[in-house]
Amino acid sequence: MRLSVIGCGYLGAVHAAAMASIGHEVVGIDVDENKIASLSKGEAPFFEPGLPEILAEGIASGRLRFTTDMSEARGAQIHFVGVGTPQQRDGYAADLTYVNAAIDGLLPYLAAGDVVAGKSTVPVGTAAGLAPRVAETGATLVWNPEFLREGWAVQDTVDPDRLVVGIPAGDAGEEAADLLREVYHPSVAKGTPFIVTDLATAELVKVSANAFLATKISFINAMAEIAEVTGADVTTLADAIGHDVRIGRRFLGAGIGFGGGCLPKDIRAFSARAEELGRGESVAFLREIDAINLRRRDRAVDLAVAALDGQVFEKKITLLGAAFKPHSDDIRDSPALDVAVRLRGLGASVTVTDPAAIENARRVHPQLTYVTDRDEALADADVVIVVTEWDEYRRQMSPEHVSSLTTGRIVIDGRNCLDAAAWRAAGWTYFGMGRP
Ligand code: UDX
Q1: What is the distance in A from the centroid of ligand 1 to the CA of 308?
Q2: What is each CA distance from 318 to 4, 215, 379, in whole angstroms?
């Protein structure tokens, strides 16, 4: 099928390349000339495992190309819209500027029978508001939310755990759903659940999934807070409750909490939208989820200050990690960098290292010292804090080796990913999050 993908960020670029990899003819469109230039050369403009390979393959096959020219969307049967919906500067609501601009830009090139499939995460009711404008061209607007995780985005796109398509009532909606079944044929054929809903449900599926995930993380972090005053171990607690299949162990990783371009802004936008709908109280708990999450960053800073007996000034603190999670170079709302900036604000000499995110971090926080080589970053550190659980720190770093580099013997495990017993045995004072 011929497809266009409007917006070539973390979502759109992966979607375009993944659709080409399953045999479709795809044009990716974005207003950012630099991004389009690098994608056109087969270079991923951000770190995403597996993306460079499918980009190169798609471009070489002639099925995948990128442009800044919206008119090249003409002729595609499905136009996916995957632009960003960031948090508004002056509030919690989602900023829909890019979604509106993408739809407006696309309208002149739509033909009767085309399908516009929104993939961006939007406040419930957005699609119904946009649908009449699309319908005037004879095209149909559907909402097809994306559940990809950064770091696993290619796999999540090619082989998702479910497909959700919100359609308007009537024949045009049914035909659009059939077209979507066709575009995702490999997944549909292998039995991946394909859920057809109304527009509002599809929009809500996405925000409620992210709200649930955020709630799960903040729940275990709340238990970490209780563990901290009782001497309990939240990691063992998570293992124990996680054996109950109704609960499950995944997303019960206590630590410095969630960040990134999705969970924080999505729960805030959900709260804002619920307020507009007069149902703020239904998701009032999300404010608490946000607050618990942000308190974990304070906790990591407090642990460092206490470990240094309050004498932070000019102490060398090395932070292992900058990205909001491993396998990503994304630093949007990264708990790791928040902790780094706060410690620097207290007068510490803060050095940050990360396998992928240093360039992005430097652009936003030039006041921090960045060192690419992990061991060089650790040299002479008084305190070591693990803030992103990359394998480089979790698996490939022995406490004995780190002892040969640092001055101090204090390690704060902001992701509860180190072997506490091994670090203690090597002479370190180990602090976990919610662990004795
Ligand atoms: C998330 C959703 O998982 C995905 O379905 C949606 O499409 C976009 O938002 P992503 O932002 O890529 O994906 O990251 P995710 O893997 O969900 O992690 C989010 C944050 O939660 C990270 O900062 C991570 O470190 C943190 N986290 C995750 C925890 O603190 N504990 C956990 O147990 C799991």
Answers
A1: 31
A2: 44, 30, 9
417 is catalytic: no
Convert the pLDDT of each residue in 29-55 to its tens digit.
999 999 999 999 999 999 999 999 999
Tell me how far apart the alpha carbons of residues 188 and 352 are, in angstroms, rounded to a whole number: 44
Assigned CATH for 291-431: 3.40.50.720
* CA gyration radius, the chain: 23
Query: What residues does ligand 1 touch, defined as CB less than 6 Å away?
Result: 146-150, 210, 213, 217, 251-253, 255, 257-260, 262-263, 324-325
Q: State which fold the 2-192 domain adopts.
A: Rossmann fold (3.40.50)
Structural domain spans, the chain: 2-192, 291-431
Q: Which of 9, 13, 11, 23 is nearest to 184 (CA)?
A: 23
2-192 and 291-431 have identical folds? yes
pLDDT digit string, tens, across residues 347-371: 999 999 999 999 999 999 999 999 9
C-alpha 381 – ligand 1 centre gap (Å): 30
Cα 293 to ligand 1 centroid, rounded to whole Å = 13
* Contact criterion met (CB below 8 Å) for 349 and 379: no
pLDDT per residue over 121-158, tens digit each?
999 999 999 999 999 999 999 999 999 999 999 999 99
Which residue is it, tokens 């002056």?
A: 90
